Each structure stands twice: as structure tokens, then as C-alpha cells.
Amino acid sequence: MEHEHTGTPIQIEATNEMGLKHTQDLVYARATANPYTFWNTQAENIHWHTRPHETLQKSKKSLKSGVSHDHWTWFPGGEVSTTYNCVDRHVNNGNGNNVAIYWDSPVTGAKEQFSYKQLLEEVETLAGVLREEGVEKGDVVLIYMPMIPAALFAMLAIARLGAIHAVVFGGFAPAALAQRIEASRPKAIMTASCGIEGVKGPAGYRKMIEEAVERSTFKPYKTIIWQRDELRWDPVLKENGQRNWQRLVKSARNRGLKADAVPIKSEDGLYIIYTSGKIPTIISGTCGQVGTGMRQHSTLAVPCVTRF
């Protein structure tokens, strides 16, 4: 990959109590001193389905008003799968038994861990379910969930299909959720039967989601519900597009239904985050560009053990 350097090196002098520089400061210094070389090196650490032809491409774009502005594209020409890099490649490299997720809930006292191999089985099966339910590359799927492992399964499964996940924190009021449904126009909603708010106990999501969908001018085709024992979503109304998540996955496993990772372009969208305030949307893409709300796929493809 070709690259150039036009920036001025920035010296980082932050030190710890022993007078030694922190690792993050050393890394940051290298990144700012020569970003092209730095990110080119980082790109060598992930799996590319199609390698990019350069690290960063600069260009000019013109508005209808005639005003022009600088435009940057990270890793143009590249195709990559975040899910493949976060999960598949570790299994393929013989690290499938290493722990990928530790879950320790201070609210319910539940503890669980998943190896990369187990995570891959969950994600590729759920991706197969989503594809069978009509989700395709480029579609948006809205996630409205508590912080449970299934939320991670959902994010990775959606990305596995080349689709975009829009994250809304579970418990948001119906009016706010309806706004986000209208903005993102999701093919489906992935949710849970409830969230648990400390001493308050379980808070059902059913009424909030059904009211939000009723308020919204855009109607998602499906609502896929992770049933929690603390408070179930009953009845699940199939005629309204509602589906029981666990039952769908069980059926898929019995049939051997799975989905392979679908690579997408470096500049394609990966997820949408909604902020509070008058500018509610950040569309995050696939390769690290942050500007006009777009961040791209490849820098997000570097995996780590998740604890929550």
C-alpha cells in the first residue's frame, strides 16, 4: 500500500510515576508522527478479503453550492469483514478454545464465558437466522437490548451479513425509540424481553417497543426477542412479525443453518450510534475515518477479549 507523510511529528512526554512513558503515549506518538506508515502497519495485522491499494486517499468534493472541501477515504479498494477478524480468524489460527467473552453481571449475579469457537457457533447460526428472516447486505437492524452476551451475538451476526446495526440503549422511552426507528429504517429489531435495573427489578421492553413501532411512520418487518427468565415477552405475536430468538436459533441448529462472513468495502457503513441532542446520528463505517459522521471498517476489526 502506498502512503505519504505530510504532517509534523508530535512529541508526547507524558510519563508514569517512575518517569517511564506509558505504552499508549508511545503508540499515539508513532501514530501522529507518521499516520500513513502507522496505519499501514496496523492494516497488516487484520485479514483482508481484498487488499486495499493504498492507506489513505485524499480528494476534493464539491457541494451543489459550488463550495469544495477535502475528502478522505481510508484503505480504498479494500474489502474486509469485522466479524471474520473478531471471531473466525482466531478459530482458524488454532485459538478457538481461548476465552472471547467474560460475562459477570452484578445485577443478576450470572456469570458466563464463551470461547472463540463457541462465539463463532452462536454468531454464524444467528446470522443464518437473520438472513432467513430477510436481512441482507446493506440493511439496517436496530438493537435495543440490555448488556448481555446476546447483544454481542447480535452485533457480530448483523455485521457478518454485511448489514448495519443501529444501537439504541435498552430502556429508552418509546418516543425516542420511534425517532431512531424512523431515522434508521431498520429491516428488523433485535431486543430482549426485559432489562434489569438494579433494585428496581426487571423492566419489560414489550410495551416500549410496541408503542415505538406504533408511533413510527416506518414499520420494521420483524422483532426478534431474546427471552429472559426474569420477565418473559408473552405472547409473541407472529402475525405482527414478532419472533422468539431462542426458538429460531434452535431450529437453525437442528437444520445446520449457518451464514459465512460477507466482506464489505472499507468505506461501507458498519453501525449507527445515536447521541442525545440536535445532531443525533453518527454512522460508523468500516475503516477508521471520522468526519461527517463516517468511520470505516478496518480499525474496528481488531479483536479483544470482552468483559462486561
Automatic annotation (TrEMBL):
Residues 93-277 form the AMP-dependent synthetase/ligase domain. It comes from the Eukaryota. Pfam families: ACAS_N, AMP-binding. Residues 27-86 form the Acetyl-coenzyme A synthetase N-terminal domain. InterPro entries: ACAS_N, AMP-dep_synth/lig_dom, ANL_N_sf. Signal peptide: none annotated. Belongs to the ATP-dependent AMP-binding enzyme family. This is Acetyl-CoA synthetase. It comes from Paraconiothyrium brasiliense.
